[in-house]
Design brief:
Number of strands: 13
Strand order of the largest sheet: 3-2-1-4-5-6-7
CATH topology of the largest domain: Rossmann fold
Radius of gyration: 21 Å
CATH class of the largest domain: Alpha Beta
Number of helices: 14
Number of domains: 2
């Protein structure tokens, strides 16, 4: 097969990590195929992908533009591509070859407050509905997301395939002591701490985490709360809330950090707390487990599906319940050891090799027969 990947969103912190890991594995383990990689001109940290079966192209048109609807079909036709895989939800409206699309979630439909622009929400909805109609198969990250796609987009569930991704291997390593010490000192982290990383959105429930942390302290817990990720205008809100709750001296907000620092913050934490109320997958849960850190997670959305039997779950809308779970994971050494062991076992369910193999099987099925009714209703996760 000659497969094209639309990787123009590879600079995105979340989707970009998925793209890098999937394509890295594809090039290494599915080398009997040819690949055309469509990359942006301005993304940083893109792997140097090369080989006799790899061709890298940089389209001139921007993402979400009218121009891409003209340029991409032209490229696909000129390159004689057999199949296009878009690891985001956008595909050309004019199809010159079969397309497979990955829809990680339907967050802007389920949580419209995440996207302020009404026009943006309309465009998102229209393009996603067009993509699910035009694509031959839809790949998604979890059974939860599959059900949400079916619910919000009215798509035939037989067209949606669950293919689990995995943690990024570059984040699943304990940091070198010297590096860790330097990172912790840089951000003013002293002693034990509870860690969370996530962009500031209402559904991520940062405020709920702060309230749960207060409950943790009131039970006798002694730690800092370290939160990393793009916070933006939310920083003032969180700092004001921390002052109201009387926990300001315990709170550390780092903002966005690069991967080496993120690995250090993961691996040195005593507990990783994920209070999110809506996730299509929950990569950070796996990343924390890969670093040998006990995970306390919200019991919402896909998170129990991803954390399996390794995490400790609680209702993150209930500050007392979630604070109690954090306290148990923080103080009960027997429980902590069991959670770490189960965390490593849980990681075995998720590998990029299995992801790449499952995606390749879907490509082959699409090219063998484009009739949806001719394909088995198999999940590949």
């Amino acid at each position: 097969m000659k497969i094209a990947f639309d990787l123009r969103r590879i600079g995105n912190p979340g989707i970009g990590r998925y793209m890098k890991c999937l394509v890295d594995t594809m090039l290494k383990e599915e080398s009997n195929h040819e690949f055309v990689l469509l990359l942006p001109s301005d993304a940083k940290g893109i792997p140097c992908w090369q080989g006799s079966n790899v061709k890298v192209l940089v389209p001139r048109s921007g993402y979400y533009s009218v121009g891409e609807q003209i340029e991409l079909p032209r490229i696909l036709r000129e390159e004689k591509v057999d199949l296009l895989h878009s690891p985001h939800f956008m595909i050309p409206l004019f199809q010159v070859c079969p397309s497979v699309v990955t829809i990680h979630d339907v967050i802007y439909l389920a949580c419209p407050e995440d996207l302020d622009s009404r026009l943006g929400r309309m465009y998102y909805s229209l393009m996603m509905r067009a993509s699910v109609r035009l694509s031959k198969r839809i790949i998604t990250d979890s059974v939860f997301s599959k059900n949400e796609i079916v619910r919000y987009l009215g798509i035939d569930p037989e067209k949606v395939f669950v293919v689990y991704p995995a943690a990024d291997n570059t984040l699943g390593r304990a940091a070198e002591p010297a590096v860790a010490e330097r990172v912790l000192a840089k951000y003013g982290v002293r002693g034990e701490y509870i860690f969370y990383t996530g962009i500031y959105k209402q559904r991520k429930n940062h405020a709920g985490l702060l309230r749960s942390f207060k409950a943790f302290l009131e039970k006798g817990g002694d730690a800092q709360l370290v939160i990393t990720g793009p916070i933006g205008e939310g920083e003032r809100e969180l700092r004001n809330l921390a002052m109201e709750l009387g926990i300001s001296s315990h709170l550390v907000l780092t903002g966005f950090v690069e991967d080496p620092e993120l690995s250090a913050l993961y691996s040195c934490a005593r507990v990783y707390a994920c209070p999110s109320l809506y996730e299509g997958f929950g990569f950070t849960v796996l990343e924390a487990m890969a670093c040998g850190v006990p995970v306390v997670s919200s019991n919402a959305a896909s998170l129990p599906e991803v954390g399996g039997e390794a995490a400790l779950y609680a209702d993150a809308r209930n500050a007392q319940a979630f604070g109690e779970a954090m306290y148990r994971a923080f103080t009960d050494n027997t429980l902590r050891e069991e959670m770490v062991r189960r965390g490593f076992e849980n990681l075995l369910r998720f590998t990029w090799s299995r992801t790449a193999k499952s995606c390749t099987e879907i490509y082959e099925q699409v090219l063998a027969s484009t009739a949806p009714s001719a394909l088995p209703s198999t999940n590949f996760g």
